[in-house]
Amino acid sequence: MDMARLGLDAQAVVAERLTRLARGDLAAGIEASLMMSEKALAISEVNARLATAAATGRLDTVGADIVRLYGRKVRANRTRLRC
């Protein structure tokens, strides 16, 4: 269920971001910068969770944890972009 919601929310975020980026104005540039920094931060968080899971032997649950992590981030972006 978390994966399905993540997929739907991600599609909405992509659509809104593409709309904003297509304008090519200052807000589009700010959104592009924000998007890139968020992605860099997210991948570092995922790497940390994977390393922790590997070190503690909990690789069986890390996938669901990462989906929840991305889900929270995508929902926050969706809420921010709606404004």
UniProtKB/TrEMBL annotation:
Q: Which domain of life is it from?
A: Bacteria
**Protein name as catalogued:** Uncharacterized protein
Origin organism of this chain? Ancylobacter radicis
